[in-house]
Amino acid sequence: MPKLSIKDLDLKDKTVFIRVDFNVPLTPEGDEITSDKRIRASLPTIQYALEHCAGVILASHLGRPKGKPNPKMSLAPVAKRLSELLGKPVTLAPDCVGADTVALKPAPGEILLLENLRFHAEEEANDPAFSKNLAALADVYVNDAFGTAHRAHASTVGIVSHLPLAAAGLLMHRELEWLTRVTQDPERPSVALLGGAKVSDKIEIIQNLIAIVDKLLVGGAMAYTFLRARDEPTGRSLVEEDKVDLASHLLRTAGDKLMLPVDHVVVREVKPGADSEVVRVIAADQIGVDIGPNTVEEYTKIIREARTVIWNGPMGIFEMPPFDEGTVALAKAVADSGAISLVGGGDSEKAIKTAGVAEQISHVSTGGGASLEFLAGMELPGVAALTDKAARR
Ligand code: AMP
Asked: For residues 330 and 63, what is the distance between their CA atoms, to the nearest angstrom?
């Protein structure tokens, strides 16, 4: 990793500003957290800072308050849960900037959680004065919010120019290490498994991964746009007509690296319990809802040989069993392959949980949008802003 990690910092008696991703789901009243997964994900970084005698300031956004205070999106329930998890008090500041917040500066070993950053429109606008006010609270900066690393906001980018050092937290570091490992000089053969609804969402990823991997296996509704580009019948399956030319271009670029399903599970109406059949050629009134068993077999053979697998997107309408069979079978194949495996994106994560193989996946990325942009070869502003090890000031 070319960027500084929290482990490279001297934290003793310093005030560290840690940007975390505590954008947790809440009950409609906003008073209870329904999943504390994101809070738990940053515990190692917070604990590391506390153990190294830093005063810890935590900052996050929560929901979309549109630049105005909104009690339903307060971080109060997060402060409560975090305090329970750490077994120590967590002070919630009344705001994220201002004299009242500055006055609450934490002593070494103490924790101050700032109120929702997005109560100020300046956060998403990456406003310089607001960034400076955030920076004024601390001596050193750590970003552990991988999920927002693809956004250039005051707390992820602007703040960095007002502090001497900016390092990756442990969660951020782990995410970047895995993503880097599978995309730069991966163990070969390297295979990408791409599914989901739309080619349009994944164009950059396909373009970037074609140059990196040895095989790119396509499933999900995305496959039908490619089949149409090959002049194969797709019936009433989801096809993005305006992306067919692009799909032809990608097929030409990829050559035999890019593989498409050879059979399909089809229905006449997409609904739970619909009658389905397996076909090689989709008839005019049929809709493809999953990859067929021969495709599962072909893809499984390739996955079994792989040393690296990158997976994003389900192979069919996996929310509607039994149309999850292709996705579940390939999730098991990835787990059994023993390859280094990286799964990115919420739906793929659900799929590996459905298949019961989450434990066997090397890394499940916590940042949907950010991991997709990384796989697409884009620079993440929140990562670019961190101090280069080589340029340590
Ligand atoms: P994405 O967010 O792009 O990964 O897409 C995930 C969505 O793609 C899921 O909701 C799936 O139900 C949907 N999907 C996958 N295969 C198909 C298909 N054959 N027809 C319609 N939707 C599909």
From this structure: 34
CA atoms within 13 A on the CB side of 63: 22
* 73: amino acid identity, one letter: M
CA distance linking residue 190 with residue 308, whole number of Å: 5
Which residues, judged by CB distance below 6 Å to any ligand atom, belong to the binding site of ligand 1?
195-198, 201, 220-221, 238, 288-289, 313-314, 316-317, 319, 345, 347
Q: Which of 317, 303, 291, 282 is nearest to 361 (CA)?
A: 303
Q: What is the pTM of this model?
A: 0.90
The answer to whether residues 144 and 85 touch, using CB atoms and an 8 Å cutoff, is: no
Nearest Cα residue to atom 3 of ligand 1: 196
Tens of pLDDT along 97-107?
999 999 999 99
**What does the block give as tokens for 38?**
């994101």
Q: Is the pLDDT of residue 8 over 90?
A: yes
Q: Which domains does the chain have, with CATH numbers?
A: 6-174 (3.40.50.1260), 186-375 (3.40.50.1260)
